[in-house]
Amino acid sequence: MTTITATAAPTPTTGRSLWADAWRRLRKNRMAVVCGALFVAIASFCIAGPPLAAAIAGLDPTQIDADVGASAPSAAHWFGTDTLGRDMLTRVMMGGRIALLVGLVTTLVALVIGVSWGAIAAYSGGRTDEAMMRIVDILYGFPTVVFVIVIMGTFQTKSLLVLFALIGAISWLTMARIVRGQVLSLRHRDFVEAARAIGARPSRVLFRHIVPNTLGVVIIYATLTLPQVMLVEAFLSFLGLGVQAPRASWGTLVTEGSSQIIVYPWLLIFPGLVMGLTIFALNFLGDGLRDALDPQTRKE
Amino acid sequence: MLRLILARAFGGFVVLAAVATISFFLLRAAKGGPFDEERNVPPEIQRNIEERYHLRDPLWKQYTHHMAGMLTFDFGHSMKRQQTVNEIIATHFPYSITLGVMSILIAVALGVSAGVVAAWKRNTWTDYAMMTVALLGISIPSFVLGPLLIAGFALHLHLLPPARVEGLSSYILPALALGLIYAGTIARLSRGGMLETLNQDFIRTARAKGLSERAVVLRHALRIGLVPVLTYLGPATAALVSGSFVIEKIFQIPGLGFFFVTTIAERDYPVLTGVLTFYIAFLVLLNLLVDIGYGLLDPRIRDKR
C-alpha cells in the first residue's frame, strides 16, 4: 500500500481565510476601524478610569460635597459636579461600567435565544419553521418594551438579573432571522451529511457542526444588538424602571441631567455625549463588520 | 390577496386574545393589589370594594368576565378614577395619535428623501455624509435629544413652546425628538432598497427606452425601492408607541403613554390590561393595513396567493 503524499505543487497564490479576508476589508473601511478603537477607548476609560482618577486626583464618585454643589466643568472636575457636589467624570465612568455590563450580558442572553431559535427553526423546517418564524414576525410588530415596562413596573424589582433576562428576551428577533437564513443554506452541505452519516444526533449536528459556521454573522449582529440593548436599558432607566439607585447607569445620569438642562447643562451633555458616542461607534463598527464579513449584504 | 388578508386578520385576533390573557395573569401574579395604599378601612368596606370589582370571585370567573368584556370593547371601570377605561383612552389617545402621526410624517419625509438622494448619488460624499448623519440620528436617544431641543429652540431661541400642549406648534419639538431615530433607519432602508431596485432588469429596460435618469428613479424605481420602508413601518409604529412613553413625559403631553407610565405602579388592573390591549389592537390593525399596502405597491406580491 502506498502512502499518499501531497503531490500538487504549492499554488502561487495563497488562499485567504474568511477571517483574513474580512480583516483586510474591514481595515479598508477606515471609519469603522476608528469607531472600533473609539469603543475600546471608551470601555477602558470606564473600566480603568475610576481607580486611576482616585489615585491621581483623589476623585470619588460617591463623595458628596454640599459646599461645592453643582459646579461647571473645571480643572479639578473635568465634567463638572452634580447638584450634590459629586464628581461627574467618575460618575460617568461608573455609569458606563453598569451600562456596558447590562449591554454585554443582555446581548449574550439575546444571542443565546436568537441563535437557538433561528437554528432550530431552520433545521426542523416545514411547519415548525413556519410557526416559529411567524412568532418572530408578530413580535416584530409588537411594542415589546412596553411589556418590560409593565413587568418592571408591577413587580417593582431592583434586581439586575431580571433586567438582563427581560431585555434579552425582547432583543433576539433579528438574530433569529439571520441565523435561520444561514442555517438554511448550510444544512444540506456535505460536512453536515457526513456528520449525520456517522450517526450524530440532530442536536449534535446542529449545535456542534452547523451553528459554529454561523459565527461570522453572529458576531456582526451581536455588535449591532449591543447598542440597541444599551438604548433599551437607558430608556427603562429614564422611566425609573431600569437600573435602580444606588447603582447608576448612563440612562439614570441622563435622567437626572435632563431635569436640570437649563441651569446645569453639563449634567445632561456629558453622559449623553459619551453614551451617544458609544452607541454610534458600535453601530458604525457593526455596519463595517457586516460589509466586511457578509458579502451578500455588502454595499456595491 | 383576500385570503392573505383574512388569514392575517385571524392571526391578529389570536394575538389579541393572547395579549389580553397574558396581561391579565401577569398583573395578578405580581404582589400587591390596587387597594393596598388605601388607608385602613373597615373590613366590610374593603370587602364591598373588592366585590364591586369582582376581585373576590375565583380567578377563572374574573378571567372569563374580563375576556367577555374585551369582546364587546368594554374594558371596564377604573379602580382608581371616576372614569371607565374607554373614557380614559378617549381622553388621552388623541394627543398620542397626533404626536405619532407627526413623528411618522417627519421620519418618512426626511428618511425617504435622504435615502433616495444617497442612492442616486451613491458612493459620493453626499452619500457618505447623509448616511453618517442617519447613523448619528439612530444613535442619539430621544430622551437626550428631547431636552436639548427644548433648551435650544424653546428656551434660547424662543421659537416654539417648550412643553405642554397649546396648539399644533407644541407638537413640533416632541415629534422631532421622537421621529429622528426612525428617520435614520428609514434613510438606510430606502437607500438599500433603491440600490437593489436600480440594479434590476426592468430598470435597465426603462433606461434602454431612453427615459431620463430622473424619471427612472422617481417613477420606476421608487415604488419598488420603498417596499422595505413600508415593511419597517409596522415595527416602527410599535417602537413609536414605546418611544412616546418617554417623549410625552419629557414634554408633559397628556397622552396615553404618559398616563400609562405614571399610573403603572397603581396596579389599576382594568386600566393596565385595557390600555395594553387597546395598543395591541391598534398595532394589529395597522400591520394589516401595511400588508394591504404591499399589494398596492408591488404587483409581484399582489398576484402571489
Descriptive account of the structure:
The complex is a heterodimer of chains A (300) and B (305). Chain A is an all-alpha fold and 300 residues long. Helices cover 68% and strands 0% of the residues of chain A. Chain A has helices spanning 18-28, 30-57, 88-124, 126-140, 144-155, 160-169, 173-186, 190-197, 202-210, 215-238, 250-258, 266-293. In chain A, helix 2 runs antiparallel to helix 12 (266-293). The longest helix of chain A has 37 residues, at 88-124. Chain B has a domain at 93-273: MetI-like fold. Helices cover 75% and strands 0% of the residues of chain B. Chain B is built from 13 helices and no strands. Chain B is flat and about 85 Å long. The interface between A and B is large, with 41 and 48 residues.
Oligomer: heterodimer
Q: How many runs of DSSP E, i.e. beta strands of chain B?
A: 0
Helical fraction of chain A: 55-70%
What's the tally of helices of chain B? 13
Distance between the termini of chain A: 53 Å
CATH superfamily of the domain at 93-273 in chain B: MetI-like
Mind describing the biggest β-sheet of chain B? none
Describe the global form of chain B.
flat
How would you summarize what this structure contains?
With about 300 residues, chain A is mainly alpha-helical.
Keywords:
A: mainly alpha; 12 helices; elongated; B: 305 residues; mainly alpha; MetI-like fold
SSE topology:
The complex is a heterodimer of chains A (300) and B (305).
Chain A lengths: L17 H11 L1 H28 L30 H37 L1 H15 L3 H12 L4 H10 L3 H14 L3 H8 L4 H9 L4 H24 L11 H9 L7 H28 L7
Helix pairs in contact in A: 1-12, 2-3, 2-12, 3-4, 3-6, 3-7, 3-10, 3-11, 3-12, 7-10, 8-9, 10-11, 10-12, 11-12
Chain B lengths: L1 H28 L13 H10 L6 H13 L13 H36 L4 H15 L2 H15 L15 H27 L2 H8 L4 H13 L1 H24 L5 H8 L5 H29 L1 H4 L3
